[in-house]
Amino acid sequence: DVKVTQSSRYLVKRTGEKVFLECVQDMDHENMFWYRQDPGLGLRLIYFSYDVKMKEKGDIPEGYSVSREKKERFSLILESASTNQTSMYLCASSPLRDTQYFGPGTRLTVL
Amino acid sequence: LAKTTQPISMDSYEGQEVNITCSHNNIATNDYITWYQQFPSQGPRFIIQGYKTKVTNEVASLFIPADRKSSTLSLPRVSLSDTAVYYCLVGDIAGTYKYIFGTGTRLKVLA
Fold this sequence. Notes:
heterodimer
């Protein structure tokens, strides 16, 4: 089975802190994605990566950056967390031309 | 990227067949149609994917008419555990397979 793991299920941070969310997949997938999910808005794509050190902006990249130094690992970085970044963050991975597999999600609260 | 439209919510009773229709008028030639299921506080889980006509697996069937401007997810004999949000997505197969998630259909199965 494909396994996508995220570093934390729940996280509480303070405004202005730098936050790292980490995602690891064990299936040698080329593509990796970060989404956030908010009530009434569905899932929105923040960034995705189609290869090591490659990244592309999704629909809502503002306030976020990403890093992919190794194929299996994709990190989402909040340089200076704000309260409007309180959300559920979902990581996904996929092979080329195939479906996306999601991790369990990280519920981030910024106080 | 093709946008999808699906009902916001549906109710059904245990043992009934449930059909959820999704419209995607601007679907492109290379787009596949994919359905995901999501339970509260979990990441979306892949259910079924198709390109045209009919696809069936152990969980569901997917019906796609010849013009591909809509698709119908069919869940046979639903149970209470099928209560979830169901997302219809279309995505290209050009490599990155970037999806647009809508707000999904909230299915509630009643006893």
